[in-house]
Amino acid sequence: MRFGFWTNNTDQWHDIRAACVHAGQTGWDGIWIADHFMPFMGDDGGPTHEAWTMLGALADAVPGPRLGTLVSGNTYRYPAVLAKMAATLDNISGGRAVLGIGAGWQENEHLAYGMEYSTVKGRLDRLEEAAELITKLLHNERSDFAGRHYTLANAPLSPRPVQDRLPLMIGGGGEKRTLRITARFADEWNVWGTPDVLAHKNAVIDQHCHDVGRDPTEIQRSAVALMFIADDEARLKSVREMDLGRPTVIGTPAEVIDTMGRYRDVGVHEFIVPDFTMGPLEQRLDTMDLFINEVAPALR
Predict the structure, then answer these.
(1) Nearest CA to 86 among 106, 66, 105?
(2) Residues 56-70: pLDDT tens digits?
(3) In 10 A of CB 100, how many CB atoms?
(4) How far apart are CA 129 and CA 132, in angstroms?
């Protein structure tokens, strides 16, 4: 089982860089960044760094872990340009890029930046075309594509990715469309969820794979949940009583090992830990170390 570190792109750059360098030095398997331009709550836009620019800088600063977006909104960039960005990142990083993409959901940034939001169906239609188009570009020297929303005309992707197969990750849990798109095109899939949710969604992906004639073992599965881990029960007591509105893992290292084992048992290949609940940098690094030193070895 792999363990990824998800850094918050609303933090100061020097803290983001320091935490990601530390992750690379201490054995984390991946570094992930959300692709958003502003927070989704509140009137204040707030400082929010652009994800792909940061990944380029981190590719040079942090050797070792894979690097990817969790996930890029397809509505933000023309998908052929996104494929070009991912291939460039793969070259900068020496073959460590993951192209994470989803339909896009954050309406306020579409309105603020003048991007078409469309309907749920419209965004999913575009995602399906984008996944097919990106797959063609990543795996062919030249590509043609004629869709309703996107086209290619003998388009190259050069330089090629370093990896023989740069992974395409689909993010999202919609069972009728998103998971079917995952079954058709994705190398990896990610969703927020508890072990029970992951067990159910994995079964849905497997059925879609059966329907489209694909081997479900070709798709790596990953999960995200908020993380509260501490040796001190007093620090955990108040959190255990809160409803944070997101899937959450709370416990001592022994308890977290048990929870991670449940994720592994339902077919999760990578668990991605957000740093959103870890506090300022010094505390964040201590929490990262507690997880990677006390929890990860029991699951790897």
Answers:
(1) 66
(2) 999 999 999 999 999
(3) 26
(4) 5
